[in-house]
């Protein structure tokens, strides 16, 4: 197993490679304001981050990743276009797998540019693939933006589409909502009983919990309105199911997705971007004919990505997490930019895992 000094030396070499590609080296604080991370990820972030508090600065978290502080730094002070690289520790709580590291080194490469999203996507992927070329890894790619476009184009209410968008990164909850919205417009017995019980509440009764009477009334009305909505069409449901099951090499995946665009026309612009990305990857020497594409890839671990996503895996070592991951996060720049935004894409590598694989493959 590589020791810390070896990992730090490998991290320095990786960062130097990214600097030679035009990236500016940067540093970010290890302690990050918890409020920002909670706003982005919700309370779920507490299950995988180390939380502490400060009398002056309030609740803080040990840096769970670099992307959020890098985006904040760029949106406050960065010029355009920009390329950044960094190396340092990140911290992740491990409550279920004691063999997973709770502190490890990451090295990253980020691109902020408005000119051509497909070209920037290909630049980041190809550069990281080149850095990893000596290792026996499988690359997986996907595009969260295609599923987002499909949801936004559904013939249903904005409330339902917003609920589905919130749970894109929680596949089980997303599926449960789809199934509920596809059923006939009738209320389940349990939900009907809940509304009947709430209807009988007297405003003078003591209120238990944080929700006040107007909030409860608004929620009841929303439930009634939703129950009265017609179900999602069988055609759209079948197309969504087909889209989510696509797992092919990139050119074949694009062809299959075009078939589903007949019933989900809102995905067509995202497919144009996918086609442009495949061409840009090919131009950079990536073997796109054998590059895996999974329409559902990234939905359980890449919460702030909203477009292209990728990962590199050691198939002979299924016990290891991804050696590198990355993707596009345009919406994150909008959230952290106080109204400003800029297209952005990046990726991170684990130098410790790279060294470990080098030792076992030697």
Tell me briefly what this model is.
The protein is α+β, with helices and mostly antiparallel strands and 362 residues long.
Task: Write a structural description.
This protein has 362 residues and is α+β, with helices and mostly antiparallel strands. Among the domains are: 1-137 and 342-362, 2-Layer Sandwich (BirA Bifunctional Protein, domain 2), CATH 3.30.930; 157-232, no CATH class. Helix content is 45%, strand content 17%. The strands form 2 sheets. A 9-stranded mixed beta sheet has the order 1-5-6-12-11-10-7-9-8, with helices on both faces. A 3-stranded antiparallel beta sheet has the order 2-4-3. Helix 4 (117-131) crosses helix 12, helix 6 packs antiparallel against helix 7 and helix 11 packs antiparallel against helix 12. The chain is globular, with a radius of gyration of 23 Å.
What's the end-to-end separation, in Å? 13 Å
Global Rg = 23 Å
Q: Could you say which structural class the secondary elements and strand pairing correspond to?
A: alpha+beta
Number of helix segments? 14
Percent in helix: 40-55%
- Sheet having the most strands: 9 strands, mixed
Strands of the widest sheet, in order across it, are: 1-5-6-12-11-10-7-9-8
CATH topology (level 3) name of the domain at 1-137 and 342-362: BirA Bifunctional Protein, domain 2
Question: How are the elements arranged and paired?
Answer:
Layout: H1 4-20, E1 24-25, E2 31-33, H2 34-41, E3 51-54, E4 58-62, H3 67-77, E5 82-91, E6 103-112, H4 117-131, E7 138-143, H5 144-152, H6 158-166, H7 171-182, H8 189-199, H9 213-227, H10 234-244, E8 247-249, H11 250-260, H12 268-283, E9 292-294, E10 308-313, E11 324-328, H13 330-336, E12 344-349, H14 351-361
Parallel strand pairs: 1-5, 7-9
Antiparallel strand pairs: 2-4, 3-4, 5-6, 6-12, 7-10, 8-9, 10-11, 11-12
